[in-house]
Amino acid sequence: MSREGRTDGGTADEATEGAAVVAAVEAVADRIEDERDHLTELDSAIGDADHGGNMARGWAAAADAARDLDDPDPQSVCRTVGKTLMAEVGGASGPLFGGSFVFASAELDDGVTAESAVAFAETYLQKVEDRGDARVGDQTVVDALTPAVHTFKKSIETDELPPLEALAKAVDAAERGVAFTVPIRAKKGRASYLGWRSVGHQDPGATSALYILEELLATAADALDSEVPDADATSPTIPDEEPDDAAGDGEGDAPPEDGD
Ligand code: ADP
Ligand code: MG
Predict the structure, then answer these.
(1) For the segment 116-171, what is each residue's pLDDT rounded down to a tens digit?
(2) Whose C-alpha in 73, 117, 229, 246 is 20 to 30 A from the C-alpha of 105?
(3) Total structural domains in the chain?
(4) What is the pTM of this model?
């Protein structure tokens, strides 16, 4: 994935990666449109019923903008997506979802590698946390992103899994994170105005983040001409969960005894 041979037009690798990222954005836009009513329903229970519309409008415009790029490379596509989300979604969630995307795209200078994907994911999460002042347990998108990003990073850096398997585990972790939003009380965003009445509801932003990750996984598998791997993210998932000991590999596990 080196860019050393690059002249101004970019490399063949870069064009292939750029086209794959555009395809991912289109898949996300289609999926979010399909889920629009469901996301609106979730947001009408604990918010203002605009999450489906916000996301569908933002991602449809992002897909159009990405398609219109002349020489798309991963970084220019992600920057364009973020800027378009900011402009189209507006309000508080435009900068939260889109602005963080623009910021994280700086990590894709050298295209998409396992390392740059981890850096992108970590920077995105960090930015969302900072901008929203939200942490795990606040019943927000952070509850889906945190286990996904931590699982992805650990799978790549510690377990040295192939990127597609790492991504599949991240998606599985995000799914658990979405489920985790249901029994907890919202502490950030509009849902927090409901206090304890937010308990028992699934967070819309965490849900749309899961759909985005699912589409990313499907398009990555397509681009690599592979099947979507089966994944069970036994570690790490969400804080305070009792590690299932059989796996013995969770970050929350007790340090291994090395027998001496
Ligand atoms: P709005 O809350 O402005 O109506 P949306 O309905 O599009 O915007 O998005 C709502 C989602 O945004 C929530 O479900 C939650 O996941 C996320 N969210 C809201 N406030 C915050 C925050 N302070 N930090 C992180 N995420 C937040
Ligand atoms: Mg809303």
Answers:
(1) 999 999 999 999 999 999 999 999 999 999 999 999 999 999 999 999 999 999 99
(2) 229
(3) 1
(4) 0.88
Q: What is the CATH number of the domain that holds 58?
A: 1.25.40.340
Residues lining ligand 1, Cβ inside 6 A: 43, 47-48, 50-51, 54, 91-93, 96, 128, 132-134, 140-142, 188-190, 203-206
Q: What is the 3-state secondary structure (H, E, C) of the chain?
A: CCCCCCCCCCCHHHHHHHHHHHHHHHHHHHHHHHHHHHHHHHHHHHCCCCHHHHHHHHHHHHHHHHHCCCCCCHHHHHHHHHHHHHHHHCCCHHHHHHHHHHHHHHHHCCCCCHHHHHHHHHHHHHHHHHHHCCCCCCCCCHHHHHHHHHHHHHHHHCCCCCHHHHHHHHHHHHHHHHHHHCCCCCCCCHHHHHHHHHCCCCCHHHHHHHHHHHHHHHHHHHHCCCCCCCCCCCCCCCCCCCCCCCCCCCCCCCCCCCCC
What are the tens digits of pLDDT across the range 9-21? 567 688 899 999 9
143 alpha carbon to ligand 2 midpoint, in Å? Answer: 17
Domain annotation covers residue 250: no
